[in-house]
Amino acid sequence: MPKKDIAEFLEEIGGMDVESLVNCVCRHHLSYLGRDYGRTDLFSLYQSLAYTLRDRLVGNWIKTQRSYYNQRAKSVYYLSLEFLTGKSLASNTISLGVEKEVTEVLEKFGVTLDEAEGAEADAGLGNGGLGRLASCFLDSMASLGIPGYGYGIRYEYGIFKQAIENGEQVEAPDDWLHSGNPWEFNRKGFMFTVRLYGREEQYTHEDGSVRHRWADSAKVMAVPVDMLIPGYRNGNVINMRLWEAQPARRFNFDLFNSGDYIRSMEDAVRSQTISKVLYPNDRLSEGRELRLVQQYFFVSATIQDMMRRFMKLKLDFSELPNRAVVQLNETHPAIAIPELMRILIDEHMLNWDVAWRICRRTFAYTNHTVMPEALETWPLDMMRKVLPRHVSIIFEINRRFMEDVKSRFPGDENRLKRMSIVEDSDSPQVRMAWLAVVGSFIVNGVSALHGELIKKSIFQDFVEMYPGRFTSVTNGITPRRWLRQCNQPLSELITEKIGEDWVTDLAQLRKLEPLAEDPEFQDRWYKCKLKEKQRLVEYARSEYGLYLPADWMYDVHVKRIHEYKRQLLNVLHAVTLYCRLKKDPNSVTVPRLKIFAGKAAPGYFIAKRIIRLINSVGAVVNSDSAVNHKLRIAFMPNYRVSQAERIIPATDLSEQISLAGTEASGTGNMKFALNGALTIGTLDGANIEIMEEVGREHMFIFGMDADEVGARRHNGYNPSEIASTDQELAEALHYIGDGTFSEGDRELFRPILDTLFNGGDQYMVLADYRSYVDAQDRVDELWMDCKKWLRSSILNTAGSGHFSSDRAIMDYARNIWGVRPMKMDK
User: Which residue out of 74, 557, 559, 594 is catalytically annotated?
Assistant: First the structure.
């Protein structure tokens, strides 16, 4: 056993000074890459620098892990099917506190930090807000010293790369790992076996009890791959453990020798498919089954890993909830509940009641949707095929739960049907949200409005059954990435004026409020925004060949393309401006650049057609000299974290226009406000709390609230009537339908119009149109008064302190997880 401690080994590896870092970069060029550091290229330099910083992370990670064990800390297991981490070089550099040193190191090689990070691929582990939230939460857990781990899947291919061809979305594989990932550690020594398919059988145990076991199952190996997440300058490092699927048997030698070369590799290919791609197309039965397999795969490996750590403590199983809490990020990991039950009753021979008490005290569930159609269900037949033992356990959970419901609400048969985990129908479904509620000790929404809406709608029956089980924790974003890293000019200005404590205490931004009236400060604030616009202009030109005006208002709508997010409403406003300008070139006072970005799910026809509409309207507007002096439209392909880091700091107007009652929270709205953008939005999700913190007069609120939406639906909603009584709306719809934006093709956008008129306008685009257009006119009016706009911009940033993910994580830690920040052992 070496006598040296980790600190001594790290000192030998090298310090944080420029000379030590340069030497380490050169050493990694030689020893890791086998290359001459005198002939380096940009990518190999990035790799060597990443390995250099990883050296400094790993020692602190081991110290952190030792502290967990030595202090017997209760740990958080954060389970999420997505982690949208983006790039790691700049964020790790900032968290380690070596930004100045790394910049000098790169200068010696003739490269900037921005250029070095350009060589890194965005980690393709998520789709949108769900995964980005999870990544923000891990950053905050590390920065606050909350003991915990993130768990997910190491997807070989991310969601997809989006290109725009002839105005339409085209998908290509997101091969983000094609050149490896220098930030990760492959932990083959900690593999677990995951079982699938097979059958359940009953047997008599040696103690005489009747037991059940899983027989004749297929096996897949789960290989852990760790990515390290540093806290902000506190020496604390946690890890995101991602599972990679490998075959239990890589190669069938008998089949190979018999000449059946293809089949000899079948097991390996089938197993590796599990972690191949994020969100396989589930319009096909095979795609749905693969997605179920993915969910169980990472859950099974994670629960086994959790039990491995717990067993080291040599405690009674009743202590498990005092040592671990499992946070289910949406229903994707909800199969963890029957999985823990299976391990406790089948492998450790606990009786049902004891195991269920342990289980119910271990799990917490975060819900992210208010729409019933978005709640995850699985066909019972499919689940029985893939997870036969778990179906039996779910049925027993449900049987006992139904007995409780009968006892609580005798004679209410309809309630039993509504609350049953297994839906009673011709094609029975397992309701995963119901399972998550029944098997967890607490359920939280993700904004104040969302928390109330789920209690009044999708979970109303469960609230009556378990009135104390529901709460809400408003989402948050990490200020390290979403201001300190992505907006250097503004970050430096804020630090100059109020100090740098805001980076870990975002409430400090309130100190900016007195400066909002200061003309000099306003001028410097404006110059910061202009600098970020110029940066975006250069990025758009070099990356996409787009030429953007730097001095216009940047009106930005970037998020997943979905009908409820109402990109269509924004397009209708663009067409309205087009119509106004065609009639009178001076009718629009403010030059406006509308920027769109976002991906549509490959199988989501209408969302993809909306992308085509955005690009088609843009093609006509941008080429029309009667219009393009005041209005232009840009769609930036392949929206991802690194692109958001360029767009958000440059934004003037943030579009958060989902129908009230459909967006659970949103986090993009928080990022924009933090960077000084003014929000145009509905009273939906966290927009309401942003309004409360920032002040309604510094936002542009429009449209119906959630109660008004419900009342309008109840009383009968007629979109045709609205279209016939609003001249500008009728004109905009006419131009979309008559071929003006489709080279005369009247059929191209008919499916979109059909959703409005024949489909009932589910997301009430037409109902909110007039209020939205009027709000946009108020935007123009305020923009013309530069001082007032800048004052509102400053106050948006100043009021964003509540939306730090640090605050959100402390809410979870105190009110849900029962954990406290931990000091590392010396």
Answer: 559
What pLDDT shows up at residue 253?
A: 46
- In tens, the pLDDT along 765-786 reads 999 999 999 999 999 999 999 9
Tokens of 641: 């974290």
Confidence of residue 37 (pLDDT cuts 50, 70, 90): confident
Q: Which residue has the tokens 């048997």?
A: 249
Percent of the chain with pLDDT over 90: 87
Contacts of 651 (CB under 8 A, 6+ apart): 554, 556, 595, 672, 675, 677
Percent of the chain with pLDDT over 70: 95
- Among this protein's residues, is 560 annotated catalytic? yes
DSSP letter string, 770-793: HHHHHHHHHHHHHHTSHHHHHHHH
Is the Cα dihedral 7, 10, 15, 16 positive or negative? negative
User: Is 368 assigned a catalytic role?
Assistant: yes
Question: What confidence tens digit (pLDDT) does each residue in 486-507 have?
Answer: 999 999 999 999 999 999 999 9
CATH of domain 479-810: 3.40.50.2000
How many C-beta atoms surround the C-beta of residue 764 within 10 A?
Answer: 25
Rounded to 10 degrees, the C-alpha dihedral 572/575/580/585 comes to: 140
Which helix (H) or strand (E) segment holds residue 654: the answer is strand 653-656
Distance CA 303, CA 301 (A): 6
Q: Catalytic annotation on 562?
A: no
> What are the two backbone dihedrals, phi and then psi, of residue 128, each rounded to the nearest 5 degrees?
-160, -135
Indicate the helix (H) or strand (E) that contains 595: strand 592-597
Annotated catalytic residue 531? no
Residue 555, strand partner residues: 594, 653
- Write down the catalytic residue from 276, 450, 560, 698: 560
* pLDDT tens digits, one per residue of 307-331: 999 999 999 999 999 999 999 999 9
Give 738's contacts (C-beta < 8 A, 6+ positions apart): 746
Options 484, 580, 671, 698, the catalytic residue: 671
DSSP code per residue over 231-263: -SSSS-EEEEEEEEEEESS---HHHHHTT-TTG
Please name the residues in contact with 457: beta carbons below 8 A apart, sequence gap of 6 or more. 370, 372
State residue 825's pLDDT score. Answer: 76
3-state secondary structure 72-122: CCCEEEEECCCCCCECCHHHHHHHHCCHHHHHHHHHHCCCCHHHHHHCCCC
pLDDT, residue 568, reads 98
Taking each helix axis as running N to C, give the angle between helix 567-583 and helix 727-737, from 0 to 180 degrees, rounded to the nearest 10.
Answer: 100
CA atoms within 13 A on the CB side of 161: 11
pLDDT digits (tens, 9 = 90+) for 411-438: 999 999 999 999 988 899 999 999 999 9
Q: Which of 29, 565, 573, 807 is catalytic?
A: 565
Close Cβ partners of 465 (under 8 Å, ≥ 6 residues apart): 404, 405, 408, 419
565 is catalytic: yes
Cα separation, 624 vs 448, in Å, equals 45
Q: Which of 64, 667, 755, 797 is catalytic?
A: 667
Residue 352 confidence (pLDDT) above 80: yes
| In contact, 596 and 633? CB cutoff 8 Å | yes
CA angle 535, 537, 540 (to 5 degrees): 110
Through-space distance between the first and last CA atoms of the chain, rounded to whole angstroms: 20
Domain extents in the chain:
479-810
Please determine, for residue 296, whether its predicted confidence score (pLDDT) is greater than 70: yes
Catalytic residue among 29, 154, 368, 592: 368
Is the separation of the CB atoms in 661 and 707 below 8 Å? no
pLDDT digits (tens, 9 = 90+) for 688-722: 999 999 999 999 999 999 999 999 999 999 999 99
Within 8 A by CB and 6+ apart from 519, the residues are 787
**pLDDT confidence band for 40 (50 / 70 / 90):** confident
Q: Is 504 a catalytic residue?
A: no
